[in-house]
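Exercise: predict the fold of this chain.
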Amino acid sequence: MFDVADPARIRNFSIISHVDHGKSTLSDRILEITGAVDARDMREQYLDSMDIERERGITIKAQNVRVHWRGSILHLIDTPGHVDFGYEVSRSLAACEGVVLLVDASQGIEAQTLANCYLALESNLEIVAALNKIDLPAADPDRYAGEIERVLGLDGDRVLRISAKTGEGVGELLDAVVERIPPPTGDPDAALRALIFDSYYDQYRGVVSAIRVVDGTLRSGARVRFFQASSTHDVEEVGVRLPVPTAVDELGPGEVGYLVAGVRNVGEARSGETVTDAARPASEPLPGYLHPKPMVFCGLYPVDGDEFPDLRDSLEKLQLNDASVTYQPETSAALGFGFRCGFLGLLHMEIVRERLEREFDLSLIATAPSVAYVAHLTNGSVELVDNPASMPAQQTIAEIEEPLLRVTILTPAEYTGTVMELCQARRGRLERMQYLSTERLELVYTLPLAEVVVDFFDQLKSRTKGYASLDYEAAGLEVSNLVKVDILLNGQPVDAFSAILHRSKAEEYGRKMAQKLRELIPRQLFDVPIQAAIGGRFIARETVKAKRKDVLAKCYGGDITRKNKLLEKQKAGKKRMKSIGRVEIPQEAFVSALRLDD
C-alpha cells in the first residue's frame, strides 16, 4: 500500500468555495466514506486542527490528507474561504491538478466563489462544480446550476448535486474527481524537485513541511538540499497524512506528504522552497510563490516589556506557518519595544494576535490598524508611511497617495440602496453594476483601503441581514487629502494613539478619542488636558480633573488670609507637579482605547 504510487492512479485536488458553503463538512464526509477515519473517531471539522478554527467555525490553515477510493489515491486539500486567507488558497492550488468548486444550493454564487474560481482558471486547473446542501428546504439546485453556467461558463448539466451533511452524492463526486481531474505529470527518473507548500514548527522534531513531489523520488535517509536557503539536511522521515501522519520509505512524482529533515532554523524551510537531492541536484528550482503584500499594519507590543524576546521568537515560528505575516522591530515612547506587523486584512490580524497569545502564551497590546501611504515630499523624495508616528511634518509634504481596492459585492437586489449608501459614505466610486439574475446584483466599487479595513465588512453584513458577500483586490494608489491626528496628554504627544485620516473624518476621530481617554485615564494630583491636534491646530480638548486634597480641614475658623495662604500653597504645588509630572497611562486604558469594535 505504501510503495511509490503509480502517477496514473493519483488525483490531487483542492476544495474551494465561499465562506460557509460546506468545504470542511465535505472533507469530513470524504474521510468517512473512504474509510480513512473510523466512525467512532469522527468529529466535526476533522481536518481543522486549531482550537480557534473550531470555535469560530472557519478554516484558517489549508490541510491535506490522502485517501483511497476505488483503486485511486486522492490527495485532498481543504482550503479556507474567507477573503483574508486567499493566499492560503493560491498556495494550495499550486500543489493540485484540479479543484472541486462548491456552491451552496440555497444561496448560489457568492463573491469568493467567483474569486476562487478565477484563481483556479488562472492556474489551468480542471474544475468539478457541485451544488451542496441540497437537503435544505430552501435549496433550488436547478436555478443555481443555471446561474453557474451563466456566470462561470461551466456546463450546467455536469454540475453535481450533493449534501455534504448527509453524504448524498459524495460517492458520485469522488467518481467525477477520478474521471475528470488529470493525473499528475512527473518524471520518476529525473532529478528530485519537491515544493514545500506549508510548514509548522514542532519543538521536538524541528520544522515539519507539507510537500508535493514534482519530479524524481524523495527517500527517507537521503541527503537533500534546500534551493533558496542553500542548506543541506538529512531526511529523517517522509510520510503521508491518512489523516494520522504515517511514515513511508519514499514519495514519488505527484505524491503529497510531509518531510522532517531536522531543520531547526525556521528561515530555511519557508513556503515556496524547492527541495532537491544534494548528490544529484536539479538545475532549476520550481517557480514557488509570489510574496503576498500586507495591506493592514499595526504595532504589537508585549504588556510586560521582558517578553519582547519571546514575542520575536514567536513571530518567527508563526511566520513559518503563515508566510503572509511580515514584521519589523519598532519602539514607542508610550509602549516600549515591539514589532510593526503587516497583515492581509483585519480578520487575519485578529487571528494572528489570538494565535500568538494562545500558542505562545503571550499578553499583547495591538495599536490601531493603519494602511501604507506614499508621501511625496517637497524636496522630491518619496517615503512609505505604514506607521502614523513616522509621518513627515505636514509642511514638508507635497502630496500623499493612499491605496485603493476594487471591491466586488454580491447582494440581493432589495438591499441595493443601503449598500450603495454605505459605499458612498466610505468615499467609494461605482465602477460597474450588473444583475446576475432578477433578484441578485453585482456591484463593483473603487474604495480607499483605509475605509474598508476597520468595520466595512460588519456594516455590509448588518445592512443586508447577512446576505451580501464581499471580495476585493488591490487597485493602485490615488492622491488624497490626508492629515495626521495627534493625541496629546499634558502637552506630550502619545504616539500609540496617532492616526492618519481623511480630513473630513479627522475631527470626529479627535473628539471621540479625547472623550474615550477622559473616561479611561485615572485622575492625577493635577489637571490633565487631553488634546487632539492636526499639525499645530487643536481640534478637540477634554480635561481629567485633579484629585483634591482638603488642605483646609485643620482650619477651625480664624482669619481668611490663613485659608488663602494654604490654598495658594496647594495651587503652586499643583502647578510645579504639572510641569514635571508624567501622566501614567495604565495598560488597560491602552487596550480599551485601541479596541477595534468601538
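Check your answer against the key: DSSP finds 14 helices and 31 strands in the chain.
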